[in-house]
């Protein structure tokens, strides 16, 4: 199974995401922002970082990169697509998922080990977890507060589209402690914390993050 | 050479932590004038000559598509001398 | 302003020039005239003035820094020594590691965010320039009193700047220091360290060899920022009465630097450069003169080709500009096409601005007119050298006579109150408020970061080879005895490497001092350098590079002498490192090393406003045996945990250990007050499984290191004799200080 | 209730990475109107009633001390209805 990992100028966690794919047993394929070709991949990850410096709004500029066109098309057709951190922001800017990511309420970049509960295991990226499972993975971002209007929030809650929630104190001011959401179909997931940094307890707080990557490999086999 | 200014502010219903932080810092420095503070972005765009209506329409489009995120922000466009 | 050219300089040899405004002394100006055989052009004057500034020429420190070479140990591990952008050390398996610290103190006081950010940006480019991929950063910081209003302005800005830049580059922050003292109030210290890794064959040097090769400038466009910054911001006190100079601060663009790193690494991988230099202090003046003098000396540059952000800049300003995120490479003509192609891929601005020539003239033209014609060595290396007067300051003898009088706890209540008070004092309190603003996970190779003794990164995913880095300075001890203080900082940094089981390999340093024109400060500096050089020689560690920052003072008051020492170590398998603490009950706790009455310069004395006494003497032989013991203990799997003792003594070490994995401990101490608070160097607490008792005893005996069993692990409290402190209470004291101070 | 607006922009000679990023992105989206873009901050400060001269003087002070860093930024203060 081939998983594409996109590099925009300013992307930082691309190598980590590729490593996580390999650890999960998949093959990672590097995708370049300026290349409007998916090179036959079965799924795509938009990794974390500061694409284009994130100067305007996070993800606002990268969503217009040439590679995004085929990605958006394929994802609308059901291809699994995971946006982590900056990738989540790109998904929101591209309106592939509702809402927006805004400045952390404490106004600081925050890097810490974060507990999450997995609340929806029916997506392409979460099927390896059990409903309600608590996991520990790094959170690191400056603009991670998930915002949307009340209607959208009610819809997300009602349809079970919140896939992960922060446990304990709200780290960034996200509405309803949202850490990650999915689209209606369950193939697109946006996640603020970083599972790719938690695939091995030697370099991360746990190996809990691996589940996201094994999930998609399972989903693709089906 | 004219300057087109685009102001982008968070929608009133969206929490503005930066504005809140400024509002909280002012009284600590002895400034008591503010009842509320909101912080937004200001873009100064330079164009050659006086902006044409077509250019201004383009700026509106760019403001909507790129400079702001309509999910959380409002914007205004105006010409400044 | 009309263009000043070489021919005009020849025609009007006596025109008066503003050399003093540029920071040059009359005799320095006279020397320039002597070198050139005429007055310099205004562009030449600009170049000499920035390159001969204290910051670039090391004119006050050179005579002392020589010792690092003279006393150096012979070692094959050193692949590139002092003099290049950063030293390079062999760490085995074909890998080489480069690391260096630099200061950005003065700019960070004026504009905390940008000052700190560009400090990180600068040191990262130094590392990149060696041909290495930067893999981690660290940030030793010093501030005025934690509760001072200006500290509340400066600290959050500096922390946000270090984080803002480093995070955006994708470099994990793996450690640093946050220390408070009133002498830093008007002069905070921002030191930044970067580590990079490469293969031996990838090492790059700053030299322009081969006539006909092209001089290529790439990266950001040149603007007016930081002009004069190098000579003004880095070398003068703020109160200096001289003419007001442009206090321009540079603004960094970390995104451009990130792209520049990836672009450069791709260029290096295809072996497209002959020599390379980053543009830091003194900008193009420095890069062109250093590259030229690193080669045969000849270079022609067309300055009007430099891409400008601000088209109104004069040639003098272009030469002095310190715009960030620029690099200068020497490229063979046959490789230039590919070079340009890679720059285009990364959308990096690139321009050929000149070529290497035969001979030894650096010739710079502006629209065809010759504005600089100098022997580059005279600019880059033959700056003035001062043998500044030095004299032991009067305070030294006075403080040595002071007897430390501090309360020492004896009852359970007193012990508890003391431990809680130390845990909460800003110098020892939990630094998460700072470090949580730094990405420590990016690149996926961070093995240790704060609050561990050292930062550790894996450099090979297959073999698990890794490096560890620690920085330390104890300015309180350096104040009492700068010679011993430097040795003790070296020992502490090396020990912080060894507690994890890594082997110390090499040293870098950042020497932060007051004005070199003050003989007392100069003496502190000279003594510190002598101490560090002697210490490195004794420990067999080469100094691979460093940085000197003078003029750190407010008015007549200098900062405490603050030599920040960085030590790099290597570990063959990061999976086997010894963690700094324990996460299970039933382990035995031992103290390695003996505790003497060492309260002088201790945190406890500091908290009681006692700054005098006699600093401990470094026993480096014992430190080296302790290091051997720690490394052997790791390879023989004796230790479950090891953590060193430094500021705050055993009380601080136990606090940090029990809180690390939320596992308590019970210890029994004789002479409990001194045992908890003394800061005798050369001590480590280790936790072992009782089954390892014999192994530990025999290792300690063979290294002649005193061994004392002090307790056991387990429970939800730290119990010291009759005092019981719950971990909840201890954690609260330790963690609430920073959020309370800084919001 | 009046609104005082403080605009804070980087001084012209200071690098503006944010403005540069926007200026570079616009043509990629087909917008060619801009010869230069600078990005700054806009603060909207609410005060009770019409601002008094003393309040405005205070806002100036606050703008200099808190809202901007005069080493790298310029600001303007004005009242908006
Ligand atoms: N400015 C900083 N940046 C990153 N890490 C820091 C910083 N300050 C302190 N730390 C980390 O916090 C921990 C405790 O610091 P410190 O008490 O100074 O250590 P030590 O006494 O062992 O030198 C160390 O891991 C250190 O690297
Ligand atoms: Mg330590």
UniProtKB/TrEMBL annotation, chain A:
Q: What is this protein called?
A: Unannotated protein
As given in the record, the signal peptide range reads none
Per UniProt, which keywords does this protein have?
ATP-binding, Cytoplasm, Glutamine amidotransferase, Hydrolase, Ligase, Nucleotide-binding, Purine biosynthesis
A Gene Ontology molecular-function term?
phosphoribosylformylglycinamidine synthase activity
Q: Which PROSITE patterns match?
A: GATASE_TYPE_1
Pfam families, from UniProt? Answer: GATase_5 (PF13507)
What the entry lists under Gene3D superfamilies is as follows: 3.40.50.880
Kindly list the biological process annotations in GO that this record carries.
'de novo' IMP biosynthetic process
**Taxonomic source organism:** freshwater metagenome
TrEMBL record, chains B, D:
BP terms from Gene Ontology? purine nucleotide biosynthetic process
The alphabetized UniProt keywords are:
ATP-binding, Cytoplasm, Ligase, Nucleotide-binding, Purine biosynthesis
Which terms in the Gene Ontology molecular function aspect does this entry carry?
Answer: ATP binding; ligase activity
- Which Pfam family, any one of them, does this sequence belong to? PurS
**Is ATP-binding set as a keyword in this record?**
yes
Presence of keyword Lipid biosynthesis: no
Name this polypeptide is given:
Unannotated protein
State the species of origin. Answer: freshwater metagenome
From TrEMBL, chain C:
Provide an example Pfam family for this protein: FGAR-AT_linker
Every PurM-like N-terminal domain range: 83-198, 452-571
Name all PurM-like C-terminal domain ranges: 211-366, 585-716
Q: Where is the composition biased (Polar residues)?
A: 1-18
ATP-binding as a keyword of this entry, yes or no, is yes
Residue ranges of the Phosphoribosylformylglycinamidine synthase linker domain?
20-59
Alphabetized UniProt keyword annotations: ATP-binding, Cytoplasm, Ligase, Magnesium, Metal-binding, Nucleotide-binding, Purine biosynthesis
Q: Does the keyword Cytoplasm apply?
A: yes
Against Gene3D superfamilies, the record matches this protein to: PurM-like C-terminal domain (3.90.650.10), PurM-like, N-terminal domain (3.30.1330.10)
PANTHER family membership: PHOSPHORIBOSYLFORMYLGLYCINAMIDINE SYNTHASE SUBUNIT PURL
Please identify the protein, giving its name as recorded.
Unannotated protein
């Amino acid at each position: 199974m081939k998983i594409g990992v996109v590099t925009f100028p300013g992307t930082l966690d691309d190598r980590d995401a590729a490593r996580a794919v390999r650890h999960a047993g998949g093959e990672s394929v590097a995708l370049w922002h300026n290349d409007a070709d998916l090179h036959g991949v079965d799924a795509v990850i938009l990794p974390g970082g500061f694409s284009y410096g994130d100067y305007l709004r996070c993800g606002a500029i990268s969503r217009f990169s040439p590679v995004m066109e085929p990605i958006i098309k394929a994802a609308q057709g059901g291809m699994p697509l995971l946006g982590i951190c900056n990738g989540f922001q790109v998904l929101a800017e591209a309106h592939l998922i509702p809402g927006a990511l805004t400045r952390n309420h404490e106004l600081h970049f925050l890097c810490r080990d974060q507990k999450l509960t997995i609340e929806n295991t029916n997506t392409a990226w979460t099927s390896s977890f059990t409903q309600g499972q608590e996991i520990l993975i790094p959170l690191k971002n400056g603009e991670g507060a998930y915002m949307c209007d009340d209607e959208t929030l009610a819809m997300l809650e009602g349809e079970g589209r919140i896939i992960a929630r922060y446990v304990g104190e709200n780290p960034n001011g996200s509405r309803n402690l949202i850490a990650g959401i999915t689209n209606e179909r369950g193939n697109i997931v946006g996640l603020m914390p970083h599972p790719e940094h938690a695939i091995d307890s030697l370099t991360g707080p746990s190996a809990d993050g691996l589940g996201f990557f094994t999930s998609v490999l399972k989903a693709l086999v089906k | 050479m004219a300057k087109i200014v685009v102001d982008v502010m968070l929608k009133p219903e969206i929490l503005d932590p930066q504005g809140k932080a400024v509002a909280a810092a002012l009284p600590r420095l002895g400034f008591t004038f503010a009842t509320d503070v909101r912080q937004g972005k200001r873009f100064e765009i330079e164009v050659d000559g006086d902006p044409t209506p077509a250019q201004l329409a383009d700026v509106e489009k760019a403001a909507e598509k790129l400079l702001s995120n309509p999910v959380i922000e409002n914007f205004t466009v105006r010409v400044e001398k | 302003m009309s263009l000043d050219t070489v021919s005009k300089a020849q025609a009007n040899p006596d025109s008066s020039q503003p050399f003093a405004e540029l920071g040059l002394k009359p005799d320095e100006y006279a020397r320039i005239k002597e070198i050139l055989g005429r007055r310099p052009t205004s562009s030449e004057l600009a170049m000499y003035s920035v390159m001969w500034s204290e910051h670039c020429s090391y004119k006050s420190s050179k005579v002392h820094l020589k010792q690092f070479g003279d006393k150096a140990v012979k070692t094959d591990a050193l692949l590139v020594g002092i003099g290049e952008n950063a030293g390079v050390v062999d760490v085995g398996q074909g890998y080489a590691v480069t690391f260096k610290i630099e200061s950005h103190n003065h700019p960070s006081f004026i504009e905390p965010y940008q000052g700190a950010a560009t400090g990180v940006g600068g040191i990262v480019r130094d590392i990149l320039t060696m041909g290495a991929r930067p893999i981690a950063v660290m940030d030793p910081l010093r501030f005025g009193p934690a509760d001072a209003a200006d500290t509340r302005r400066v600290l959050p800005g500096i922390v946000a700047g270090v984080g803002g830049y480093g995070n955006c580059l994708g470099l994990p922050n793996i450690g640093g220091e946050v220390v408070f003292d009133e002498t830093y109030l008007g002069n905070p210290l921002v030191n930044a360290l970067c580590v990079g890794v490469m293969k031996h064959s990838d090492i790059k040097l700053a030299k322009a060899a081969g006539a006909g090769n092209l001089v290529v400038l790439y990266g950001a466009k040149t603007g007016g920022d930081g002009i004069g910054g190098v000579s003004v911001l880095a070398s003068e006190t703020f109160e200096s009465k001289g003419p007001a100079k442009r206090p321009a601060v540079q603004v960094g663009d970390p995104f451009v630097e990130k792209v520049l790193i990836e672009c450069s690494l791709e260029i290096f991988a295809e072996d497209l450069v002959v020599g390379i230099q980053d543009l830091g202090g003194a900008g193009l003046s420095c890069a062109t003169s250093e590259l030229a003098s690193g080669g045969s000396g000849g270079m022609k540059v067309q300055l009007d080709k430099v891409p400008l952000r601000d088209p109104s800049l004069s040639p003098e300003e272009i030469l002095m500009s310190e715009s960030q995120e620029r690099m200068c490479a020497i490229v063979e003509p046959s490789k230039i096409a590919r070079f340009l192609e890679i720059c285009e891929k990364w959308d990096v601005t690139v321009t050929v601005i000149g070529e290497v020539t035969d001979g030894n003239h650096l010739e710079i033209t502006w629209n065809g007119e010759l504005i600089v014609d100098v022997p580059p060595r005279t600019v880059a290396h033959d700056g003035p050298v001062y043998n500044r007067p030095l004299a032991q300051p009067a305070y030294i003898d006075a403080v040595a006579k002071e007897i430390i009088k501090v309360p020492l706890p004896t009852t359970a209540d007193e012990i508890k109150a003391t431990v809680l008070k130390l845990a909460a004092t800003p110098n020892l309190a939990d630094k998460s408020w700072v470090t949580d603003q730094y990405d420590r996970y990016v690149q996926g190779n961070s093995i240790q970061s704060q609050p561990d003794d050292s930062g550790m990164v894996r450099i090979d995913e297959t073999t698990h080879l890794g490096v560890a880095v620690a920085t330390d300075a104890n300015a309180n001890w350096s104040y009492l005895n700068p010679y011993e203080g430097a040795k003790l900082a070296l020992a502490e940094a090396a020990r912080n490497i060894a507690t994890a089981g890594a082997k110390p390999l090499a040293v870098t340093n950042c020497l932060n001092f007051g004005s070199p024109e003050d003989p007392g400060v100069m003496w502190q500096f000279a003594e510190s350098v002598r101490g560090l050089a002697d210490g490195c020689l004794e420990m067999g560690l080469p100094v691979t590079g460093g940085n000197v920052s003078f003029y750190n003072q407010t008015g007549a008051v200098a900062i405490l002498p603050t030599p920040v020492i960085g030590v790099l170590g290597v570990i063959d398998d990061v999976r086997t490192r010894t963690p700094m603490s324990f996460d299970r009950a039933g382990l035995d706790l031992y103290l390695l090393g003996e505790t003497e009455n060492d309260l002088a310069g201790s945190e406890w004395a500091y908290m009681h406003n006692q700054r005098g006494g006699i600093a401990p003497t470094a026993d480096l032989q014992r430190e080296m045996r302790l290091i051997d013991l720690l490394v052997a203990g790791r390879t023989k799997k004796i230790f479950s945990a090891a953590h060193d003792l430094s500021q705050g003594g055993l009380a601080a070490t136990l606090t940090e250990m029990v809180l690390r994995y939320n596992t308590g401990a019970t210890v029994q101490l004789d002479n409990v007050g001194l045992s908890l608070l003394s800061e005798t160097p050369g001590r480590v607490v280790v936790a072992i499984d009782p089954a390892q008792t014999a192994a530990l005893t025999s290792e300690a005996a063979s290294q002649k290191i005193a061994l004392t069993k002090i307790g056991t692990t387990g429970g939800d409290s730290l119990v010291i004799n009759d005092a019981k402190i719950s971990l909840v209470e201890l954690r609260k004291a330790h963690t609430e200080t920073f959020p309370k101070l800084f919001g």
